Amino acid sequence: MPNLPALPRGCPLSLTLIVINIGLYLAQMSTGNLITNSGLLYGPAVQGGQWWRLFSSGFLHGSLLHVGFNMYLLFMLGPHLERAYGSLRFALMYAGSLVGGALGVMAFAWDQPTLGASGAVLGLAGAMGIALHERGIGLRQSPVFGLVVLNLALPLLVPGISFSGHFGGVLAGILLGYLLVWLPARSHGASTGNTLSIGAAAVALLIALTVMAATLGGVVSLG
Length: 223
Description:
mainly alpha, about 0% strand
């Protein structure tokens, strides 16, 4: 009997996130539109008090290809980051990227229904870019570089895909990568506790900005 390939070790959160996303997609398929309609990101609903949508939308998907592509990227990126920097820092990277994607949508596409883990996963790619740069490795040497570029280009080529969510996730991932990877590497006296506190504060700020944008109806209403 052939040996089955072993799952990567030292990355429990990455594998848990993949299981949750796939499990919720199967639940979406089994309940029709119930879970999708109650969990996708939609500015008017969030403004009306349904704040959970800012987070639940990042775990829902619109098709098998959608969830499959995002989970493949998560499988390629997550274990590397989690093993290198620990589950807590990885959790902050993922959470901040997910919220960053929601912030992009709430700020610039407030009334566009959106769902998917693309913002969170592309945020991990942004954090990975910072990590590679800090180590003196060129971004194009990453095995997922082409897939990330394709994922960023898709909203410009295919109608209905949220560019704001993708771009917001990337920017948030870059920010968390800078705070959780770049700064600790440059500040040799920085403790793990201080690093995690700074990362948590950044995620809290992103959440506050996202709630503000949702409440005000996007940046258009600010003008």
